[in-house]
Amino acid sequence: MHPSVRQWLERSRRHAPLPERTVLELARTIQRWQQHPAGPTQAPRAIQKRGLRARDQLVRHNLALVGFTWRKQHSGLSPEDAATADALQEAALNLLRAAEKFDPTRSYRFSTYASFWIRRGLLRFCQRDRRCIAFPREQAALVLKAEQLSEERMRCNGIGPSLSWLAAQLSTRKQPIAPAQLEALIRSWNHTQTCSIEAFAF
Question: Using alpha carbons only, what angle is made at residue 160 by residues 9 and 64, rounded to the nearest 5 degrees?
Fold first, then answer.
């Protein structure tokens, strides 16, 4: 394992996961800051300070989820590659965004919501830095639209959509798309990258 990757993973495991009750308390504090009527940047300083502190604590104690997701995803991000540490850091930034956007009134857990954002960060890193061959523009647009719809669905419901639902949203009168066709398209997209498209939360 590359030293930078090992160091990143070791740092991420320094803080144990928090009890669910604590997670919800922190999430409520963050939400009061993020949803302040004046906006998060114009909220009273005390609310900003408490929100930032809660956000950083929530991220710090869930940082190990980044490494866990990377291993579970079986992506082409090799532990021997120094660039993998950059990918993990980008995924951690998405974890931070998840902490700011999480709605504690929903029925899903923060770890479920955060995992989606982490996978998205890893995928985006691969798309930007690890593309191998060209992909037809129209087909790429469909896959990226599927990603956007998946993200929006995750934000609202806490779980990703099914292939059937995505295919229905992407179909038009001139171009109907069957779930199997969409799945094949996503698989083809996967073959143009060195990491997996499994970061989609289907």
Answer: 10
Which residue reads 């698989």 in tokens?
Answer: 187
Contact 162, 101 (CB under 8 A): no
Q: pLDDT tens across 145-200, in order?
A: 887 788 777 767 777 788 888 888 888 767 788 888 888 887 777 666 544 333 33
**Cα 166–170–172 angle (5° rounding)?**
140
Show the tokens assigned to 161.
């959509």
Residue matched to tokens 């700011």: 100
Residues 6+ apart with CB under 8 A from 54: 26, 27, 29, 30, 33
- Fold adopted by 1-130: Four Helix Bundle (Hemerythrin (Met), subunit A) (1.20.120)
- Cα–Cα nearest to 195, from 96, 98, 92, 69: 69
For residue 177, give the DSSP letter.
-
What's the pTM value of the predicted model, to 2 decimals?
A: 0.67
Of the candidates 163, 127, 123, the residue with the CA atom closest to the CA atom of residue 146: 163
Extents of the domains making up the chain: 1-130, 132-202
Angle between helices 83-101 and 20-34 (to 10 degrees): 80
